[in-house]
Design a protein that fits this description.
The protein has 2 domains: 237 residues, Malonyl-Coenzyme A Acyl Carrier Protein, domain 2; 62 residues, Malonyl-CoA ACP transacylase, ACP-binding (Alpha-Beta Plaits), CATH 3.30.70. It is 42% helix and 14% strand. It is α/β, with parallel strands linked by helices. The N terminus is likely disordered. Helix 2 packs across helix 4, helix 4 packs antiparallel against helix 6 and helix 5 runs antiparallel to helix 6. The chain has 14 helices and 10 strands.
Length: 331
């Protein structure tokens, strides 16, 4: 069956939304205090999240609260920040032709594409984050400096381990049972391959996510999905997402599926992206994107440089992305 994905005539600018791991205390505090537009969009996201979240997103932006590293808070706050940054850039005249999100970042991308309402995405995000938070701790994740092919042959002997992410052609993340990951790390060391344990509370994108899927799926089936106005490139599928593929089953699969970031970026380039904007609280994915600049002639930008990022810096970015056209800073 032919897929109904529509690619815009001029998809040069792509937004890429960061996922969990980019959180930090007081993220986007400078933008929140200096940009009325950003503050308004963040407060809209906060209001959408509050029915399922007992804390305000704004608390984590204003204060250096260590709870930001808990999954139950990190994911909703990152979703809110991704949405608010993307919406503020839109107010400044930046209209991306393509959207992609790394793990939790895909929910903000879906809202800005028009495929999900802000309220529906907020319900999905809080259900996902809290479902993961309630899982037993003890899972682990392992960053490996190797290709996917080099590690795949080790996984079948370890049924509680999966490939969490393929971030580049030479960087993958494995996730699952800590003991089984230690065995894999020893095997990799024997082949001279470097592998580093990540500091995480749970084994995201692994078979250990299975106990939360049924309850999360029940929430996902209550959500309305619409055709995306701006094409979404899926990091589950590693390609543009067709309208009929986006639904409850997709978001359930999204929880434990491999994040195929490298394939997603290849898809963006194939679809014509020449300027990629990392949309998140601080540069994280840009490290993976910048080596592509020389190879493919693309430009890489960051929507926010960290807690000290300002409205003026965001306006400067928008001016560059709109080819020097005057940019009116929204009220």
């Amino acid at each position: 069956m032919e897929r109904s994905t529509t690619v815009p005539a001029s998809p040069e600018t792509a937004f890429v939304f960061t996922g969990q791991g980019s959180q930090q205390p007081r993220m986007t505090a400078g933008l929140y205090s200096s940009s009325p537009a950003y503050r308004r969009h963040l407060e809209q996201a906060d209001a959408a999240l509050r029915p399922g979240l007992e804390r305000s997103v704004i608390d984590f932006v204003r204060d250096a609260d260590p709870l930001i590293n808990r999954t139950g808070y990190a994911q909703p706050v990152l979703f809110a920040i991704g949405y608010a940054l993307g919406a503020t850039l839109g107010d400044l005249g930046v209209r991306p032709g393509l959207l992609l999100g790394h793990s939790i970042g895909e929910f903000a991308a879906a809202v800005l594409s028009g495929a999900l309402s802000l309220d529906d995405a907020a319900r999905l995000v809080t259900a996902r984050a809290q479902g993961m938070e309630l899982l037993p701790e003890g899972g682990a994740m392992l960053a490996v400096k190797a290709s996917e092919a080099e590690v795949l042959e080790l996984i079948p002997a370890h049924p509680l381990v999966g490939t969490a992410a393929v971030n580049s052609r030479a960087e993958v993340v494995l996730s699952g049972d800590g003991g089984q990951l230690d065995e894999i790390r020893e095997q990799l060391a024997g082949h001279g391959i470097k592998a580093t344990r990540l500091r995480v509370s749970h084994a995201f994108h692994s078979p250990l996510m299975a106990p939360m899927l049924a309850e999360f799926g029940a929430v996902a089936r209550t959500v309305e999905h619409r055709p995306a106005g701006t094409p979404l490139v899926s990091t589950v599928l590693g390609r543009a997402l067709a309208a009929e593929e986006l639904g409850a089953d997709y978001w359930v699969r999204h929880v434990s599926a491999t994040v195929r970031f490298a394939d997603g970026i290849d898809a963006l380039l194939a679809l014509g992206a020449t300027r990629i904007v990392e949309v998140g609280p601080r540069p994280v994915l840009s490290r993976l994107l910048e080596p592509l600049a020389g190879e493919h002639g693309i430009q890489v930008f960051n929507a926010c440089r960290g807690p000290a990022g300002t409205a003026g810096q965001l306006a400067e970015l928008a001016a560059e992305l709109t080819a020097g056209r005057p940019v009116a800073v929204p009220a």
